[in-house]
Amino acid sequence: MKPHDWYGDRGESFRVAAYNVGDGPDPIKVAHLVRLAIAHAVGLVGMCEGADRRRMLRAFRRTMRRVHGQRWGSYQPFRARGGASVPIAWSKAEWQRLRWRSVLAVARMFLGPRGAGPTYAKAKAINVLVLRHRATGRVVKYLNGHAIPSEERHLSPAEDARRDEHYRAFVAALVGILDHTHVPVVLTADLNAGPTNPKLGPLKDAGMTGWSTEPTHDRSIFDHIAARGLLLLGEDLVHGASDHATVVHEFGFPVVA
Predict the structure, then answer these.
(1) What is the tens place of the pLDDT at every residue in 48-86?
(2) Which residue has the higher pLDDT, 8 or 28?
(3) Please, which residues have CB within 8 angstroms of residue 27's CB and are 6 or more apart in sequence?
């Protein structure tokens, strides 16, 4: 489905992207973010692997303001453990930021002497924004995070057990936020697991629907967008500027009686 095929009044709907930044020079990343904002009319972007991308976000905001006449905000908390790696950017013309915070989902954790990735898993955070959609006045809570890598890969029994503990703690932290949320919710995340993985069951039990359906990394669906209390109007992938495809969803607000 191409963006111009999507339906829904732009005043009543909005578009969100889940972008795993990955490696590569900042100018390529900035151009990709601009493409999302201009060509795909995305007004919310959740990023992963962005801890070293402070200059990229500044360059993106500057480019949007000077070249395209749009003002964007960003949230990248460097003082919160793990928060800098999962920044969020939003169009100020489309969204009013009400509150923000970074929730530590899993502290730095020993995994084992061997296996995929480092011996210790970095602290994992979930960045949370509460936003008001300017065109409708509706409030949305937005979550962005990045689960432990290679979740579905089998290693030694001891390391598998530790990784399983880490992953379940991350999902439990997301569910904990959802349990205290009474407005529509959007989640963007590199969950390093497909939508049928049973460990994502608690999120589905919490009412999260509209999961990404297209492969984002080789043949795997790792990068997800899901929501609660919103209508899924369209899904697309935007390739380039990363080894992960960027997922884009369009959501609409349900009619309020």
Answers:
(1) 999 999 999 999 999 999 999 999 999 999 999 999 999
(2) 28
(3) 59
CA distances for 12 relative to 36, 197, 242, 253, angstroms: 19, 32, 31, 6
In the predicted model, is pLDDT for residue 212 greater than 80?
A: yes
pTM above 0.90, yes or no: yes
Strand-strand pairing, 44-48 and 13-20: parallel
For residue range 72-126, list pLDDT tens digits in order.
999 999 999 999 999 999 999 999 999 999 999 999 998 877 655 567 889 999 9
| Residue that the structure tokens 């029994």 belong to | 157
- Predicted local confidence at residue 8, as pLDDT: 46
- Go through 226-251 and write b for each residue having 16 or more CB atoms within 10 A of its CB, e for each that does not: bbbbbbebbbbbbeebbebbbbbbbb
How many residues are recorded in the chain? 257
CB 147 within 8 A of CB 191: yes
Q: Which CATH class is domain 3-252?
A: alpha beta
Which residue in 249, 255, 178 sits closest to 211, CA to CA? 249
